[in-house]
Amino acid sequence: MSVGVLAAFQMVYPELNFTRYFTFGRIRPLHTNAAIFGFALSVIFATAYHLIQRLCRVRIWNDSLAKIHFVLYNLTIVLAAITLPLGLNQSKEYAELEWPLDLLIVIWFVIFLVNFLATIFTREEKQLYAAIWFYIASFVTIPILFVVNNLSVPVSFSKSYSIFSGVYDANIQWWYGHNAVAFVLTTPFLGLMYYYFPKHIKQPIYSHRLSIIHFWSLIFIYIWAGPHHLLNTPLPEWLQTTGMAFSIMLWMPSWGGMLNGFLTLTQAKEKIKTDAILKMMLVGITFYGMSTFEGPLLSIRSISALGHNTDWIIGHVHSGTLGWVGMMSFAAIYYLVPRMWNANLYSEKLANVHFWFATLGILLYIVSMWVSGITEGSMWRAIDSKGFLQYPSWVQITEVLKPFRFARGIAGAIYLSGVFVMLYNLIKTIQNSGSGFQEIDLRVKEEGKSA
């Protein structure tokens, strides 16, 4: 997130590109990979290990595999943080890491997947709750997407070339890119929602039937929507139309799930003023609804022609990542840490301060990017009475956008300040825990024998 703030201000003050290792072109992929595959995926793995044992009523299948997964995963993050600023990059969005790291990722993901599925197969709880379905869909789909998109021919230890080319490469890339958003930033966090919302408020999910409809319709529709990233390009017309149609259909399951989460939280509305976790959950599900409305909207050809490649897209992406993923992650972290260390949260007041920093930061960010993006798209399209571009100079447009991009940098700094408040709060919580980390026996006794 710190790198993201630096990248935001580089768009306003080019002199901040002070060395080749910290130019925008190198730190931008570092920012996206760290945020998505470093922060978000860490939360996904942590919550998966936590909830799968409780919903299946068994210990994780193999502790050693979990430890190997932890070490290799964090090794990948460190190596990514080193190689990306060095310029070792495949030039494919969300798939920038070179082939040695791709292989390492596949190894630890398979290790995790085996451990996760084996825990499910050895469970002592007959029913599979909806939250597990969303996690299974994510963990089965992610490696398939990742492997296909990263198929390449290595020419050295630090360089490879994709086996796809031209329009085929673009199609595969955005089949992967869109579904990386689907199965990393959406479905596992919906699984998180279906488990932690009821657990925190101590009330059942609003509708189990709706959760089933939500799951199957989302899984069927989401995988087809990737071509909407390539509207008005050489991609075949029928494929663009297919992507647009399925993207518009995503409104229905997305909002069905959003309403299910929202109506679940209304069962504890009397706590909303004081409970920081509940506030984060509520704002998170609200931003999920906003971003899943905006995504299908931007997939319509005429609107895509205005918004594509502008700051509007940046605002859309961050309403999902900072609003939905960020808030859900913070809520899960605040829920887990005190329970894992058997302690009360150090300061509920600081958690509320974090909530307001995050909320105000997100709102300032997306509003500034909406205004900037629509202004940018309109200026690109503007023509004079003779039919010539009214603003032919890219620099001329960039100067107009500076105030909005400066506001975006300030918004990112506000959001980041909230993260530092959270870190302080959690560190103090752990320090004051007394007995330290607590291991819980998940076995239950049924009919006189250990379950």
TrEMBL record:
GO terms for cellular component: membrane. SUPFAM superfamilies: Cytochrome c oxidase subunit I-like. Its main location: membrane. Residues 1-451 form the Cytochrome oxidase subunit I profile domain. GO terms for biological process: aerobic respiration; electron transport coupled proton transport; respiratory electron transport chain. The chain crosses the membrane at residues 30-52, 64-87, 99-121, 128-148, 174-197, 209-225, 245-265, 277-293, 313-337, 349-371, 406-427. GO terms for molecular function: cytochrome-c oxidase activity; heme binding. It holds the Pfam family COX1. InterPro entries: Cyt_c_oxase-like_su1_dom (IPR023616), Cyt_c_oxase-like_su1_sf (IPR036927), Cyt_C_Oxase_1 (IPR000883), Cyt_c_Oxase_su1_BS (IPR023615). It is a multi-pass membrane protein. It is found in: Membrane. Gene3D superfamilies: Cytochrome c oxidase-like, subunit I domain. Keywords: Electron transport, Heme, Iron, Membrane, Metal-binding, Respiratory chain, Transmembrane, Transmembrane helix, Transport. Belongs to the heme-copper respiratory oxidase family. This is Putative cytochrome c oxidase, cbb3-type, subunit I. It comes from Leptospira santarosai str. CBC1416.
